[in-house]
Amino acid sequence: SITVQNGVDTARAVYVYDDYDGTTRAEFNDDLTISTAGSNATYLYGIDVRAGGKVDVTKGLIMNDNNNITWSLFAMGNDSKIDINSSASGEVQVVGSVGGYDGGAVDMTLNTAASYFTGASYLKGAGKVDLDISNQAVWNMTGTSATTDLELASGAVIDMRADSNGYSTLTTATLGGSGGIIKQDIDVRSMESDKVLVAGDFSGTQALDIYQKDNYVPAGDSTEGTGLVLASVNGNGIFTAQDREGTLFYTHYDLANKASETDGFTTDWYLNKIIKTDEPTTSVDTVLSANALNYHTWRTENDKLLQRMGELRHNGEEAKGAWFRVKGSKIGREGRFGFENKYTAYELGYDEVTKRTEEKTRYQGAALSYTDGSGSYSRGSGDNSSKSISFYNTEIGSKGHYLDLVFKISNMDNDFAVYDTNSKKITGDFNNTGVALSAEYGRKNDLQNGWYIEPQAQFTLGYLGGDNYVTSNGIEVNQSGIKSAVGRIGFN
Known about the structure:
Elements: E1 2-3, E2 10-17, E3 25-28, E4 32-35, E5 43-50, E6 54-57, E7 61-63, E8 71-76, E9 81-84, E10 92-95, E11 98-101, E12 105-110, E13 116-119, E14 121-124, E15 128-133, E16 138-141, E17 145-152, E18 157-159, E19 169-176, E20 180-187, E21 192-193, E22 195-202, E23 205-212, E24 229-235, E25 238-241, E26 244-245, E27 250-259, E28 267-277, H1 282-302, H2 306-315, E29 321-333, E30 339-356, E31 360-377, E32 380-397, E33 401-419, E34 425-443, E35 445-446, E36 452-453, E37 455-464, E38 468-470, E39 476-478, E40 482-491
Parallel strand pairs: 1-4, 2-5, 3-6, 4-7, 5-8, 6-9, 7-10, 8-11, 9-12, 10-13, 11-14, 12-15, 13-16, 15-17, 16-18, 17-19, 18-20, 19-22, 20-23, 22-24, 23-25
Antiparallel strand pairs: 20-21, 24-28, 26-27, 27-28, 29-30, 30-31, 31-32, 32-33, 33-34, 34-37, 35-36, 37-40, 38-39
């Protein structure tokens, strides 16, 4: 670990000057941490090599608390060289610009998801900056930059939007690898954008992740943005464009290429058209999934009290009186608007014999219940709960026939928090009130040796009221009520 704490004019954490005799180099065979936050020098360097000097950091480099650093990595003069993570086995976090000047070279490998480079890259004379970025590592490009060899693969990101929403240009001699993402700002109204220029050879396939300034989306029949050039290249590489998730719909950016109109390049990649798609966004999917979760949970719980009446029928007066039970349940569905709800239900009730004759016995009671659930959605989760009161009646005939009636009022609350494909958090909270009336009729027919058969029919009518609410990203949701009628015929 190296800490720079002072310095009036010029301060360096690592400085190697060789005077071109080929003998001066510094090697760090383990992870290196450099802190320059304590320095107030006018010119501040992390690693500075000149006149043929060399520095090799074979593993990781952490240099992320720099305070007004001039250069994080700077190589100047023929044969001057800085290698960062040369063994490709370390974590790299570098804040501050890098430069290869007048024959000096910087070679940096970022190949872990926790690795990042925040800064710009500069070239002068015959200088070089080679960057190998892979495995979801990120280059937050804070301004117009130049590199020599640039490799981008396996989910690695170059975020050109890190320039405070300006428009920057990335110029590189070569761009290779596949599966990388380049985030770009554009404005289809002024026909401006971040740009990628590949002066040497472009190979492989990279995705452009396009962000329209101010989240403006052209009308469906608009030609705004058509022809906007996003990259000019040499070589046979391919650019694709990622769909951009909005609030209510996705925006599809269709790219095309043509012979370049820019000197020194053979191919221009440009916006051909911008299309709104009907694919459900995270917001739409979650709103409908959460609504379905409430409905299916409510409907599932509507007839659970009939189980209590079965206890009264089979156990007689020994079962009457106060009762309490706890049960856990899990429901869900796959596919579009899917969900999973794991919940625990707590029920407390009391029933009593209210009428007894030779022909029948009547039990009546009331119950309170509370459910506490945890919902899962395609891109997040939430909590849900319900409170209900039920009134029930069961009449048991002397010949084994019975009639169960349940009237239930429920109030359900659901809140969710999900993240869209732009990592934006979306929350919502809504409430539904439902009523349900269930009836079950059956008859127990005793057979020999304690066996019996009990045919039964059940019918449930219900109504789950809607709600109006606004999600955190401004969607106004107007739920209508849902009518439900469920029948069942079977036997025990």
